[in-house]
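TODO from last week: model S-adenosylmethionine:tRNA ribosyltransferase-isomerase.
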Amino acid sequence: MRVDAFDFDLPPERIALRPARPRDAARMLVVQGDAMSDAGVRDLPSLLRTGDCLVFNDTRVIPAQLEGRRGDARIGATLHKRIDLRRWQAFVRNAKRLRVGETVDFGAGVEAVAEDRLADGSVILAFSGDEPVELLLERAGTMPLPPYIAGKRPTDADDRSDYQTMFAREDGAVAAPTAALHFTPELLAALEAAGILTETLTLHVGAGTFLPVKADDTDDHVMHAEWGRIDAATAERLNAVRARGGRVIAVGTTSLRLLESAAHDTGEIAPFEGDTAIFITPGYRFKAIDGLMTNFHLPRSTLFMLVSALMGLETMQSAYSHAIDEGYRFYSYGDASLLLPQR
């Protein structure tokens, strides 16, 4: 499909620069088949059925944004995929001033050697010393806010907690699974009381999620791979939910993409561990999920393509037009949508 089919105009004032407080006070647009209704995140227990299961991503965002110097050149790096204990793949700003074999000093005793340059323009950085890289990043790194927020205000201390979900425990993401930012212990308790189940999986979200689609046709776009894991016990419980007639509702596109990567054509979810570069566009047949809770996405983005594949392009164009007209807040710190396709 042509990428411009997924374009729409978004007024800049609709981009949220801070999250709702408390988190579960955000608004939520509910799309069921072709019908739309305005609700709030706190209404979620009444919008789902007893026996449904919400699936969260427990990845934890690391301070993966680094600023340093190579000689007199300023070098910026955003880590986006771990290779091994000391090496990370990174998008590098001012990369023309950095040659393979040169060292970048990121301050606070943190240095990395540019070990290789890949075909997509990213650089493999090998961190020096014996300290775990996670400790180095805690000293020298900052939270990698999306460019549409970072371009309007500096990262601050609040972002250390605001840009982390309550489920975060597995270090490795450089972007938050933002749909889960809306959840609080109080909301989880209300969901449990309503008989709604929860499960977690892990997908380490990479910075590639922020990259624009530069191709004119979706067939020509290449997704960056991200590492994920679903253990056998979780897969078994999710299959049991559907066998009992419950619905598997992914919380966030990251959870959805990993579930679909792990599913057989029969719809059975298998244990999974490894990289996935799944790219979901209209025409895709969903196998593992029955619904999605997600935030509002960028024009022409792979994520708007994904929700259009789930609900239909015309439905999502109408839903986003309604959200803009009604003052919903967009993107990572914005409001939510609950998408329930008719099966």
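Done. The two ends are 24 Å apart (CA to CA).
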